[in-house]
Each structure stands twice: as C-alpha cells, then as structure tokens.
Amino acid sequence: MSLLHLVLREIRYRRGNFALGVVAVAIAVGFLLGELAVLREHDVRTEQIIAAKEAQTHARMAALEDDYRKITLELGFNVLILPRDQNLNDLFAEDYASQTMPEEYVEKLAHSRVATIQHLLPSLQQKLKWPEFERTIILDGVRGEVPIANASAKRPLLEPVPEGTLVLGWELHRSLKLEVGDKIKLLGRPFTVGKLQPERGTKDDITVWINLREAQQLLGQLGRINGILALECVCAADSLPKVRSEIGAVLPDTQIIEFQSQTLARAEARQRAAAEARQAIANELENRAKLRQTRAEFASVAVPLATLVSAAWIGFLSFSNVRERRGEVAIFRALGVRSWQIIAVFLGRAVVMGLAGAALGCGACVLAGVAWHASAAHQAAAPVSFGPAMLLLIFSASPLLAVMASWLPTWWAAQRPVAEALSQT
C-alpha cells in the first residue's frame, strides 16, 4: 500500500480533526493575504488621492494665481519708460518728467514683440496751477492702452478718458465738492466730471486725468509724451536687467525705472500660490504615509500572532489525533512497521492539511476581495490579486507550518515503547 493511499485513508478516518486543521491554516493565510491586500489597496488609493489632489491643486493654483494677478494688478504699473535725458532728481522732486519723447515710441514698442512687458500706457504729465480753482494739480493726459502685437487680449489696468471729460483725484473732488456730471473748466477749456477716484494716499489724490490728445493741446506738446507706463510680465525681483535690455534694443534713447515694491509683491504672490500647492500635496502624502505605517505596524503584529495561534492549534489537533491513535500506532509497530513510516503518514497528512488550508485561505480572500471591490463604497479599490511569487510562498510555507506544528506530537507517538503504548489502550 502506497504512502499516499495511507495518508488519504488517515484523513478520511479523522475528517473532523483534519478539517479543523485546514481551517487553522486558512486563517493564518487569510490574515497574511488580508493585511497585504489592505496595504496594497492603501497604496493604490494613495495614488488615486494624490492624482486627484494634484489635479485639484493645479486648478486651485490657477485660481489663486488668477486672484493674485487681479490683486497685484491693482497695484498698478511697475515700469516707467522715460526719455534718456530726463534728470531723475528733477523727476522725483517735481513728480513728473520735464523732458518729452515722441508718442510714436509706444507704437514702436508695442509692435516689437518685447516679451518682458505688457499693458503699455503712454502719458503726458505736468504739475501746474489750476487757475479756475487756484489749486496746484498734476495734469495727466492718458489714452487707452496700446495693445501689444500678437498678445492675447487683456483687461486694461486703466480705462481711457473720453474727450471732453476728466477724472478727479480724491482730495480734489472732496475739497472742491465736485460730483459726477458737474461742468467745470480747466485752463479755459470746458470739461464734464466723468469719474471720482477713491482715496489712495499718493499724488493721485491731487491728479486730474484727461484725454491725452487734449492734454497735448493744452500743454502745447502735440505728438509728445513724457512717459510710458508698463507692467512686467516676468514678475521676478531680478528681471530689471532683462527688461532694460529688451526695451533698450527697441528704444535706445530711453531709460527705465522699476517700482520695486510692486514687483516684489507680484513675485511673492506667485511664489505663495506655488508654495501652497506644493504644501497641500506634501501634507496629503505625509498623512497617507503615517496611516500606512500604522497599518503596517498592525500587520507586523497581527500576522505573526495569527500564525502562532494557528500553529499551536494544529499542534494541539495533531497531539489529540496521535494520542487517540496510540493503540493503532503500537499495533503497527508490533507488526513491524518502522517509526519513520508512521511519521511519514502523519506528516504527509500535515502536508495535505497545509496545501488544503492554503487553497481555502486564498479562495476566501479572493471572494472577499471581489465582494469588497464590487461594493458601491469601494469600487475604486484595487481588486485582490496574487503574483506567482506570492502563491509559491503561500503554498510552500503553509505545508511547512503544518509539518512543524505536527512534528513533536508525531515524533512522540512514533518513539513510545510498544509495550507501554499497548498497555494504555
């Protein structure tokens, strides 16, 4: 009679004991595969969350940059292009440039495709006495922004002033008690108050804005301007050399002044938006890493504990089996069956128990994973799957576990003296 035949007969004879051993092995396998599946699902879910977070963050960053762009645009222009012969001491002392340059310079700059600036606005400014009201004002003649060639349309930073109207700074309309629609004169020419500016705390509070063409006529500067306001699109604190280089190549007889505070504010706004985006993803990754570490630590305790309990249970079942069969074992030995043959039968039973338990544990995990994956709450979870290496490990370790747990009871039964065993039956 072959060893396999003896093993199968032994299994059929003690089916209940064998089934309990199979369940013990399946529990150990289930714990291992379950924890691995949880960790794998966590990793897949982390990838999904981070991908969604990155998409959300990119959208939020775009919205933040748009918000910051709108906020910083309210700071106004941050580059001033002046005639080369303009003395900067006089500019800062008088609050306007006394030298002029051709108005066509702004058109030339707009069509030069300069990449570092946008929102070009030519102006003609002069500080003078407003004879009709005996007030010192800054007269600022402006026209609509000159569009840059091949650039996308942008909302203007400063709306043009229609001919025949003027815009008053806060201090002027407050002290003179002027309202929108009032008819007044400026240097003898009639105007209608078109807009009242809010308080800004700068020289704008004593500025009167009129149409550039009318300002040139009133000041006797037809076709002339004394400044071109622009906005840097690079938004970096160290970009002035590049701006000067590009503009200098187009308008060599000009000089450029950068308003540093506005430039820094724009750069900090962009950097803040980028930092918030990176921090949001980093925080999510850190939280998911901590959660995975907690789950891994639990698995490092639960899986060995489940294996130990299963091994102890298998050992108990094996001891119970051989103890009840000690009389049969003694008879076989009395008939000449060797100890190693008896050990081979019981350990063969343990091998089959381990293989059956591994198959049962894998099947149960697959079914549980399919049910979990099919549920509405976890359809995004990763389905349970085992690679060849994992299956080889499971179907090798499970029989080994059962054999190790059964070895001592089996060896004890096979080594007992025949006479002693027969006397206790």
Question: Which features does this protein show?
Answer:
about 425 residues, alpha+beta, 9-stranded mixed beta sheet, two-stranded antiparallel sheet, 11 strands
What does this structure look like?
This protein has helices at 3-13, 15-73, 88-94, 104-110, 170-175, 212-219, 240-250, 260-324, 326-334, 339-374, 388-415, 418-423; strands spanning 79-83, 101-102, 117-130, 135-142, 165-168, 183-186, 189-196, 207-211, 224-225, 227-232, 254-258. By secondary structure, the protein is α+β, with helices and mostly antiparallel strands. The protein folds into two domains: 3-62 and 273-423, no CATH class; 79-258, no CATH class. It has a nine-stranded mixed β-sheet. The longest helix has 65 residues, at 260-324. It is rod-shaped and about 130 Å long. The chain starts with a helix and ends with a helix. The model is unreliable at 70-75, 261-266 and 378-382 (pLDDT under 50).
